[in-house]
Write a structure and sequence with these properties.
Blueprint: H1 5-106, H2 109-127, E1 131-135, H3 141-159, E2 164-167, E3 180-185, E4 191-195, H4 196-216
Parallel strand pairs: 1-2
Antiparallel strand pairs: 1-3, 3-4
Helix pairs in contact: 1-4, 2-3
Length: 226
């Protein structure tokens, strides 16, 4: 039975409606899939950039923390240096005061004479020479001449040796030093400085750790005494 034109048109409309519906469903499926992929990609990019931002600010935070530590360390080192400078200045003042007291000691002739005897006798025992020259301050010349016989006799009793001592009257020690003597071999080959300043400096170097401890107490951070 042949279809009428109306039936053909009706079937065509049904087919077109079916195709359109299929097309719409396919388009919706594509849109949904595209939306899903977009959402996933957007989430991935957001997370990726979020991590980058977190890493960036973590680096910044670490840099700030490092700068704070460096600044605190520099400030601490600066403070330590200032403390050390103040301590060194105080030690110099103490040694200066000690020199002043040595100068006062030389004004007591009895004590100073005994000190000169000991200084000369010690130098003789160190050099063990038979002929030596003494250098002293011009002001100490009479006192040195007085103690020479005493010291040479002490030296002979202690060592069994004799020594000729001569005062150098052309090369006096500086008048501004506290006192004491220098012993020199003939020809200036060997010299022993037993001036009061030299003895004080040597003693200060030897006793520097004890002096620091007496003045400032023990330092828990110091590993070695020097």
């Amino acid at each position: 039975m042949a279809l009428s034109d109306a039936d053909v048109q009706k079937q065509i409309h049904h087919m077109m409606a079916f195709i359109e519906q299929e097309a719409n469903e396919k388009a919706e499926e594509i849109d949904a899939r595209a939306e899903e992929e977009f959402t996933i990609e957007k989430g991935r990019l957001v997370q990726q950039n979020r991590l980058k931002i977190i890493e960036y600010y973590e680096r910044k935070e670490k840099q700030v923390e490092l700068q704070k530590k460096i600044g605190a360390s520099n400030q601490l080192n600066k403070s330590r240096l200032e403390v050390l400078k103040a301590q060194e200045s105080h030690i110099r003042n103490v040694l200066h005061e000690a020199r002043q007291k040595l100068h006062i000691l030389t004004q007591n002739e009895t004590k100073y004479q005994k000190l000169l005897e000991d200084l000369i006798c010690q130098g003789l025992c160190q050099l063990l020479e038979s002929d030596l020259v003494i250098r002293c301050r011009r002001a100490d010349h009479p006192l040195v001449e007085t103690v020479i016989p005493i010291t040479t006799e002490k030296y002979r009793e202690q060592t069994g040796r004799t020594c000729k001592l001569t005062v150098d009257t052309t090369n006096w020690l500086p008048a501004e030093i506290c006192g004491g003597i220098e012993l020199v071999t003939r020809g200036n080959r060997i010299k022993i400085s037993n001036t009061l300043e030299a003895r004080l400096d040597m003693l200060a170097q030897q006793m520097l750790p004890e002096i620091r401890q007496m003045l400032f107490g023990s330092n828990p951070n110091r590993k070695f005494d020097n």
